[in-house]
UniProtKB/TrEMBL annotation:
It is found in: Cytoplasm. It catalyses: L-proline + NAD(+) = (S)-1-pyrroline-5-carboxylate + NADH + 2 H(+); L-proline + NADP(+) = (S)-1-pyrroline-5-carboxylate + NADPH + 2 H(+). This is Pyrroline-5-carboxylate reductase. The keyword Cytoplasm applies. The gene is proC. It comes from the Bacteria. The lineage of its organism: Bacteria, Pseudomonadati, Pseudomonadota, Alphaproteobacteria, Rhodobacterales.
Length: 259
């Protein structure tokens, strides 16, 4: 496929890094800023440098608030049977089709772990997409990690609040956990190693186990032991559940506002 990225900042750049490893597709980036692009990727800074009906896919990877201003100038560059793919949080198919007309549109919600090929993406395709387009885009997004098709836009907005924004939550949890490890006496390098390896190992243990997460937690919590003492603080008054509930609901509400 011949693919145009409108915007190639943090998220578009992370995905492009994986896609560029595969010689199957060719990429053009349209961005006023010339970021450090993988070899073989063409860069243009404005739409007038493009030809009519050049692309099979146009990936919209600019901020949602910019789409109404920027996208109209690029519509001519998509082939008549091409497909728009948007990774913009919240921005609905109705908003995009209001700009591009009744065209094949796929909303994808990736996350930053795409940078290392371990991303999680949700994918919703509108009715104008053919089965072939859906499977081509699903396979293409799958090159950046796992791809979960969903059957409504609302599911994309809910998934945004879990996996799209998730790396932000996890980076902050890691920061706080590392700070606590340093506070108890470890240097930063050791604190990072202890925390990262504990989290990676725990996630993998949970992934490989048939037990519930609650049972796994109980299995490492000796009666009147150290883990119990720590968990009594972490879980006191249901504060952790309340915090995570409020976190994901705030992100979901923001996705709805960005429609
Ligand atoms: N950062 C993240 O973790 C995630 C971001 N997204 C979505 O990805 C989109 C991009 O977000 P980021 O990459 O974080 O933002 P960013 O600010 O890093 O990248 C935006 C890019 O758009 C470019 N740009 C600005 N004006 C332009 C124009 N007129 N024409 C073409 N390009 C233009 C900027 O130069 C920049 O390279 C957003 O819609 C966001 O909702 C989705 C999932 C995760
Ligand atoms: O913060 C944002 O709006 C984007 C979308 C999901 C993650 N980052």
């Amino acid at each position: 496929m011949n693919i145009l990225l409108i915007g190639c900042g943090k998220m578009g750049g992370a995905m492009l890094r994986q896609w560029a490893k595969d010689a199957e597709n060719s990429f053009t980036v349209a961005d006023p800023v010339k970021h450090d692009l993988p070899a073989g990727v063409r860069h243009v800074s404005k739409p007038t440098s493009l030809s009519e009906a050049e692309f099979d896919v146009i990936l919209i990877a600019i901020k949602p608030q910019m789409i109404a201003d920027v996208l109209p100038d690029y519509v001519f560059a998509l082939k008549p049977d091409g497909c728009f793919v948007s990774i913009a949080a919240g921005c609905s198919v109705a908003t995009i089709s209001g700009i591009v007309g009744d065209r094949a549109i796929v909303r994808v919600m990736p996350n930053m772990a795409a940078m290392v090929g371990l991303g999680v993406s949700g994918l919703y395709a509108n009715d104008a997409c053919t089965e072939q387009q859906q499977s081509d885009v699903t396979a293409w997004i799958g090159q950046t990690g796992t791809c979960v098709p969903v059957d409504s836009e609302d599911r994309i907005d809910r998934l945004t609040a879990i996996s799209g924004s998730g790396p932000g939550y996890v980076f902050e949890i890691l920061r706080s956990y590392v700070a606590a490890a340093m506070d108890i006496g470890f240097d930063e390098a050791t604190a990072r190693a202890l925390v990262f390896d504990t989290i990676t190992g725990t996630v993998e243990t949970a992934r490989q186990s048939d037990e519930t997460l609650e049972d796994l937690r109980k299995s490492v919590t000796s009666k009147n032991g150290t883990t119990q003492a720590g968990l009594e603080q972490l879980m006191r008054d249901g504060q952790l559940d309340a915090l995570l509930h409020d976190t994901v609901h705030a992100a979901y509400a923001r996705a709805a506002e960005l429609k």
